Model the fold of this input.
Amino acid sequence: MNSQWKILVVDDEIAMRESLAAWLREDAYTVETAASGREAVEMADKTPYDVYFIDLKMAPGINGIETMLEIRKHQTDATVVIVTAYATVDTAISAIKEGAQEYMVKPCNPEEISLFVQRIIKVKSLQRENVYLRQKLAKQCSFWDIISKSPEMHAIFDLVGEVASQRSTVLIQGASGTGKELVARAIHRAGNRAHLPFVGVSCASLAETLLESELFGYEKGAFTGALGRKRGKFEMAAGGTIFLDEIGDISPKLQMDLLRVLQERKFFRIGGTEEIPMTARVIAATNRDLQAAMETGEFRDDLFYRLNVINIKIPSLQERRQDIPLLVDNFIDRLAIETNKPVREISKGALKLLMDHDWPGNVRELENAVERAIVTARGEVLEEGDFDFIARARRRDTRLDIPAGTSLSELEKRAVEAALEQSYGNIKEAAQVLGVDRSTLYAKIKKYGIPR
Amino acid sequence: MLLSVLPVAAVDPAVLAAIEKFLGSRLPVTTRREAAMSVPPEAHDPKRDQYDGTLMLRAALAQCPPEASRLLVVTDLDLFIPMLTFIFGQAQIDGTAAIVSLARLRPEFYGLPPGPDLFTARYLKEALHEMGHTYGLTHCPDPGCTMSLSVNIAGIDRKHPDLCGNCTVRLSDKLDTLRRDPAQPRRES
Done:
């Protein structure tokens, strides 16, 4: 894959520059030539090259070292090889002192130049790989997995930094797809518990009894099927963080149990008598309006106040539209590599289309849309046509046609199917549309055998 | 496709015949021997006492018959390019012409006893290598492939007189393209 490396050969003697260029082209490098230092600087300003071979003495105009220094003004990491017919120790030292990576005396033995070019390219490959891995590491491990330039989000970043090492419970509120779990993970990673477990539990996806045994664990024989002792999530998260997602959907009994754990900071396994200390920090999240749920009696106010010691409200994507270009660029960088597609950027028209969309599914929906566009895109640039599915979804008629004589259960099945179709299979969104909690929706999907 | 084989000055006819037969078996070409060309005086560098491969190729291209789609220049003279101390051969990438020098392929050049079979194997590989460049092939990372870069005689001896699987596919794709659109711009050296 030598063709990925762009080389510029700069020499005032046509025979020299063309012979070196031709030799490098046989090795499949992408090679261009410049007849003077000035021309080389102009070319480098337009498109940076990976490696420059620059003749030391060129007439008229600027010499090789001056050319190198000019190029370096715009491209500080340019790799430069100074080529000279007049081999002296002084010129070699001054070229290297000024920042040239290598110094080459012409004419050169083919074996020497071959090893020389391979060595330079190997170093360039390692540098490129290093930059990529550093970026990847920074993205993965830092708290800035959450990408934003909006002031509201930066206030959240500051708050996360302040509370990360405390033990207080945190309640994260925000619509689905806004990144509640990312914020929870950021709190965990930024604090002094980062080396201890982070255990996530999706409270809405499990039935009450199952969730209870997931959280607290059980002893052998605690109930039919309890064949051995099982540790619960609170135990697994010992010393670390337990993240209770969709806390607004838990049953009144579990609300009571959870309140007791938070108050007493200890619990029993189901069917157990041994008291187990609760050492994990609790972070809870919900997309429900818990104040409203308290007013209707669906959510215990004492539990709410226990959870809501530190409150973080994540704005919807609609409230931070200025982040869309930044997020899209980030998704393209990452997803193009993951999907092995040559996509590099998005056209202005396509970006405008994304900026104008409402994104009810927030950042997750935007990420899914970019991934879908990348997978089907044919060029290096995502165009408006690659996002046709957004317009199609807007136009889609989601009205239900109900003929007389339709049974109630048939009606329910069709309502669930329509909600799932509208939300592209997103359970949270579909449950919101239907006005039921997620565990109810899971039960309906199972009952009617609806494929997902 | 017609491949013109053009000797520069005196070249052993048996060598030329072997090259023609070999290339005819590896490439879809009909070969034709052209009358020997005299050495272009501007190609000689008295300081190095060598011949500039690029200038030789340029002079040969001026004599290339219009009906020939490829031109292979063969010479006994020792070649160089200004940036390098010597070359075994040179070619126009994805172009018309290539040149092969026999000077450094004989074992005698390295102070060894003559080895006719070794010499033959070397010039056949070099002829196919340079012709490969004219079909757009670049150096191959497989050291056994004819298209691998040889910077010394040991490198030539290491490789086989055949293309590897990848280069065979790339050559085949190129030949398909040429069959669909045989008109090719004649490139100056």
